[in-house]
Amino acid sequence: MEPRTASSDQPAARTEEVTVTVCPGGPLLVRGPVTLLDGEGERLDPGRRTVALCRCGRSAEAPFCDGSHKRRTRRPPVDAGPADA
Protein backbone atom coordinates (compact mmCIF):
# COMPACT_ATOMS: atom_id res chain seq x y z
CA MET A 1 0.00 0.00 0.00
CA GLU A 2 1.31 3.44 -0.96
CA PRO A 3 1.89 5.99 1.83
CA ARG A 4 -0.74 8.73 1.85
CA THR A 5 -0.45 12.40 2.73
CA ALA A 6 -2.46 13.63 5.72
CA SER A 7 -4.40 16.20 3.68
CA SER A 8 -5.36 14.13 0.64
CA ASP A 9 -6.03 10.67 -0.65
CA GLN A 10 -3.14 10.94 -3.15
CA PRO A 11 0.07 8.93 -2.69
CA ALA A 12 2.75 10.84 -0.77
CA ALA A 13 5.69 12.10 -2.81
CA ARG A 14 8.73 9.87 -2.53
CA THR A 15 11.75 11.81 -1.44
CA GLU A 16 14.28 8.98 -1.42
CA GLU A 17 16.25 8.35 -4.57
CA VAL A 18 16.13 5.02 -6.36
CA THR A 19 19.42 3.79 -7.81
CA VAL A 20 20.16 0.83 -10.05
CA THR A 21 23.75 -0.41 -10.12
CA VAL A 22 24.93 -2.81 -12.82
CA CYS A 23 27.38 -5.27 -11.27
CA PRO A 24 29.81 -6.51 -13.93
CA GLY A 25 29.10 -10.21 -14.46
CA GLY A 26 26.45 -10.09 -11.74
CA PRO A 27 23.03 -8.77 -10.84
CA LEU A 28 21.35 -5.39 -10.96
CA LEU A 29 21.33 -3.88 -7.47
CA VAL A 30 18.21 -1.79 -6.90
CA ARG A 31 18.29 0.51 -3.88
CA GLY A 32 15.47 2.70 -2.65
CA PRO A 33 11.68 2.67 -2.49
CA VAL A 34 10.52 0.62 -5.49
CA THR A 35 7.55 -1.59 -6.21
CA LEU A 36 8.38 -4.86 -7.96
CA LEU A 37 5.70 -6.56 -10.06
CA ASP A 38 5.68 -10.01 -11.66
CA GLY A 39 4.52 -10.75 -15.22
CA GLU A 40 0.85 -10.71 -14.15
CA GLY A 41 1.19 -7.38 -12.32
CA GLU A 42 1.23 -8.93 -8.84
CA ARG A 43 3.51 -7.33 -6.26
CA LEU A 44 6.69 -9.18 -5.31
CA ASP A 45 8.01 -8.77 -1.78
CA PRO A 46 11.80 -9.01 -1.79
CA GLY A 47 11.93 -8.78 2.01
CA ARG A 48 14.61 -6.08 1.98
CA ARG A 49 15.32 -2.52 0.77
CA THR A 50 18.26 -3.41 -1.48
CA VAL A 51 17.29 -5.96 -4.12
CA ALA A 52 19.62 -7.96 -6.37
CA LEU A 53 17.86 -8.81 -9.65
CA CYS A 54 19.23 -11.71 -11.70
CA ARG A 55 20.63 -10.98 -15.16
CA CYS A 56 22.14 -14.39 -15.97
CA GLY A 57 18.88 -16.36 -16.02
CA ARG A 58 20.27 -19.14 -13.82
CA SER A 59 18.77 -18.14 -10.48
CA ALA A 60 16.47 -20.60 -8.72
CA GLU A 61 14.99 -17.55 -6.95
CA ALA A 62 14.18 -15.56 -10.12
CA PRO A 63 13.75 -12.67 -10.53
CA PHE A 64 16.08 -12.32 -7.54
CA CYS A 65 19.78 -13.19 -7.72
CA ASP A 66 20.92 -16.27 -5.80
CA GLY A 67 24.59 -16.09 -6.79
CA SER A 68 24.32 -18.64 -9.62
CA HIS A 69 26.28 -16.30 -11.91
CA LYS A 70 29.38 -17.05 -9.83
CA ARG A 71 29.37 -20.68 -10.97
CA ARG A 72 29.68 -19.93 -14.67
CA THR A 73 32.92 -20.20 -16.64
CA ARG A 74 34.83 -16.94 -16.68
CA ARG A 75 34.92 -15.09 -19.98
CA PRO A 76 37.37 -12.38 -20.98
CA PRO A 77 36.08 -8.81 -20.65
CA VAL A 78 34.28 -7.37 -23.67
CA ASP A 79 37.07 -4.86 -24.29
CA ALA A 80 39.79 -7.54 -24.36
CA GLY A 81 41.85 -7.56 -27.53
CA PRO A 82 42.60 -10.63 -29.66
CA ALA A 83 44.44 -13.45 -27.95
CA ASP A 84 48.11 -13.88 -28.84
CA ALA A 85 48.84 -17.01 -30.86
Textual characterization of the structure:
This protein is an all-beta fold and 85 residues long. It has no helices and 5 strands. The strands form 2 sheets. A 3-stranded antiparallel sheet has the order 1-2-5, with no helix packed on it. It has a two-stranded antiparallel sheet with strand order 3-4. A hairpin with a 5-residue loop joins strand 1 (19-22) and strand 2 (28-31). The protein starts with 18 loop residues before the first strand and ends in a 32-residue tail after the last strand. The model has no long low-confidence stretch (mean pLDDT 81).
Q: Gist?
A:
It contains no helices and five strands. The radius of gyration is 18 Å and the shape is globular. The strands form two sheets. The protein has a three-stranded antiparallel beta sheet with strand order 1-2-5, with no helix packed on it. A two-stranded antiparallel sheet has the order 3-4.
Radius of gyration: 18 Å
Helix content: under 10%
Q: For the terminal residues, how far apart are their CA atoms? A: 60 Å
Biggest sheet features: 3 strands, antiparallel
Structural class: mainly beta
Strand order of the largest sheet: 1-2-5
What percent of residues are in strands? Answer: 15-25%
Q: What is the approximate shape?
A: globular
pLDDT < 50 stretches: none
Mean pLDDT metric: 81
Number of strands: 5
Count of alpha/pi helices: 0
Series of secondary-structure elements, N-terminal to C-terminal: EEEEE
